[in-house]
Amino acid sequence: MIQAVRGIILDMDGTLVDTNEAHAQTWREALEAFGYQVPLEVIRPLIGQGGDKILPRLTGMTEDSEIGKKIAAHRSDLFEKRYLDAAKAFPKTRELVARLRDAGLKVVVASSSRRDHLDRLIAAAGIGDLIDSATSASDVDESKPAPDVIEAALGKLGIAPEQVLMIGDTPYDIEAAASVGVRTIALRCGGWSDEHLTGAIAVYADPAALLADFEASPLV
């Protein structure tokens, strides 16, 4: 039996703010600065995971290795200086989160971004006053698709997984949520097609489309 939804876990990058391409670009540039030539088409499908997953996939080195730390720091610096202040929310993002709150739902953000970046993205989305809490890569050992950040979000919600929905944009959101019993509504605005979002209980174009269909969506 499907239980009524009481809580929402929100992804940030690619779901509420249009930053996936910026993350891909900064990974390409950071890797190039250290002698690694990796095409964007190889990097883009990895976005949605944290550096602890992306760097080994692209270089074979861990993020805590000497060079790995330098690459990760350079990438983070590039994102902060070039893209973070320019980050824009997708249309109707604030309105969607406000509608979630109006429906009596608790809302927690769960992101693979580090905490200081996440705070600025939340501000860019204009939802800081609408969410109950947030979890980031800084709070956990492993990023998505490991379930760590989802488990942390569930802890902040204090609600059983079967009464919580994830709203995300990547297969990694779906996998991380499913591994702890949380169902996912997926959005295409992060760049993934329906065939890659298999496992989501519903797929919408973006926050505006989900808001428009709110009463007929799995949220109700």
Give an overview of the whole structure.
This protein has helices at 20-33, 40-43, 51-59, 66-83, 93-102, 115-125, 148-157, 171-178, 207-212, and strands spanning 7-10, 106-110, 133-135, 164-168, 183-187, 202-204. By secondary structure, the protein is of the alpha/beta class. The protein has two domains: 7-19 and 89-216, HAD superfamily/HAD-like (Rossmann fold, 3-Layer(aba) Sandwich); 20-85, DNA polymerase, domain 1 (Orthogonal Bundle), CATH 1.10.150.240. Strand 2, helix 6 and strand 3 form a beta-alpha-beta unit. The longest helix has 18 residues, at 66-83. The two termini are 15 Å apart. The model has no long low-confidence stretch (mean pLDDT 96).
Which characteristics define this entry?
single chain; alpha/beta; Rossmann fold; 2 domains; six-stranded parallel sheet
Residue share in helix: 40-55%
Q: Kindly estimate the percentage of residues that lie in beta strands according to DSSP.
A: 5-15%
Structural class: alpha/beta
Indicate the CATH topology of the largest domain: Rossmann fold
Secondary-structure arrangement, i.e. CATH architecture of the largest domain: 3-Layer(aba) Sandwich
